[in-house]
C-alpha cells in the first residue's frame, strides 16, 4: 500500500514535544542541574552497573530504590512507585484518571505536558488561567470544582515556568473540597524546600510527583516517582509499562539516592545564585523578573525574541516562552554555575544597553 489511513483523530494538529535544544556553550534552557554527578559517585555507579545482569528483565517495581525512597519519606513501600522520568507518571495519570468523558483541571501557564497528555487520552481540559502575578485564581478554581465533574487536577509547585510554589493552605483546602485526584507536581521541591508529603496521611486523593532529573542531576537517566496512598498506587500500576524503569537506571538511581546528601551544597548554591540573579535581572533596564522558588527565573522584557537571539548568538541558550499565551515577551533562564550566570547577565545587559542607546534619541524627542 502506498498510503496509510489517518492516525487517531486526537493527534490532528498536535505538535510533538520539542525541548528546543540547540548547540550552545551555556545550557540555561531546560532547568537541569548545571553540575553533573561528581566523580566519586560516578565511580560507585560504574561498580553498581557492572553487577547488573543485562540478559534479565528488571525488577518491575524497582524494589531496592522503592524501599530507599519509602524509608526516606517515612512511608510504606506500597506508597511509592517509580517511573521512566516524571513524564511517564504524568502520562499514567491521564490514562488512569482521564479518558473519554472525563475532565481535568489545569492552571495555565504551566507545564505543557499536562494538557498534551489530556489531549492524547481524550480527556477534557478545563483551564483556570492564572492571575497577572501568576498566582492561582483560587475563587475561580473552587467555583468550577463545585460543578462536581472534575476527575483530576494537576498543580505544579513550584510552577514551571512561572516560578512560585502554590500556597500550602490552598492545597489543603483543595484536597478537602473534592474527591478528584490532586497531583502536586514537586519536580523542583528540593529548591523550594517545601512539600505536601505530610498531607498524604489525611488525604486519599493526593499524589505527589518527584523526579531525579533536576536537583539530582539525572535528566539523562529518566527516573521519577510518585508518593500516594496504596489505593492510588495500585491504579497507576494497572496502566504503567511493566518494565519502563530499566535495570541500569534502577542501579544508578539507588546509588544517587543513597548519596543524595552530596547534592546539598550544589542545591544551596543554586538557591543563593537565584537571589543574586534575581537582583541582577531586577536592576537591568527594561527587564521584569518574576520571583522564583525554583532553579530558574522567568522574566519579561520588550523584544524578548530578539534578546533570545542575541543571547543565543553569544552561546547562552535560554527558553523562549514569548509565543505562549499569557507569557508574551517572557524568557526563562535556568540557574547555572556562577560563571554561566555571570555570562548570561553580561550578555543580557549588553543587549539592554544596545537597545537603550538605539531608543535614546526617540526618548528625548
Ligand atoms: C522536569 C519536570 C518534570 C519531570 O521531568 P522528568 O525528566 O520526566 O522526570 C515534571 N514536571 C515538571 C513541571 C517538570 O519541569
Strand content: 5-15%
Fraction in helix: 25-40%
How many helices does DSSP assign?
A: 12
List SSEs in N-to-C order: EHHEHEHEHEHEHEEHHHEEHEEEH
Bound molecules: pyridoxal-5'-phosphate
CATH classification class of the largest domain: Alpha Beta
What's the total count of β strands? 13
Low-confidence stretches: none
> Which of globular, elongated, flat, extended, rod-shaped describes the shape?
globular
Radius of gyration: 22 Å
The fourth-level CATH homologous superfamily of the largest domain is: Type I PLP-dependent aspartate aminotransferase-like (Major domain)
Mean pLDDT level: 96
Counting helices, strands and paired strands, the structural category is: alpha/beta
Please, could you describe this protein's structure?
39% of the residues lie in helices and 15% in strands. It has a seven-stranded mixed sheet with strand order 2-8-7-6-5-3-4, with helices on both faces. The chain has a four-stranded antiparallel sheet with strand order 9-10-13-12, covered by helices on one side. Strands 1-11 form a two-stranded parallel sheet. Helix 3 crosses helix 4 and helix 3 packs across helix 8. The chain has 365 residues and is an alpha/beta fold. The protein binds pyridoxal-5'-phosphate. Pyridoxal-5'-phosphate binds next to helix 3.
Which characteristics define this entry?
alpha/beta; Aspartate Aminotransferase, domain 2; Aspartate Aminotransferase, domain 1; 4-stranded antiparallel β-sheet; binds pyridoxal-5'-phosphate; 2 domains; 365 residues
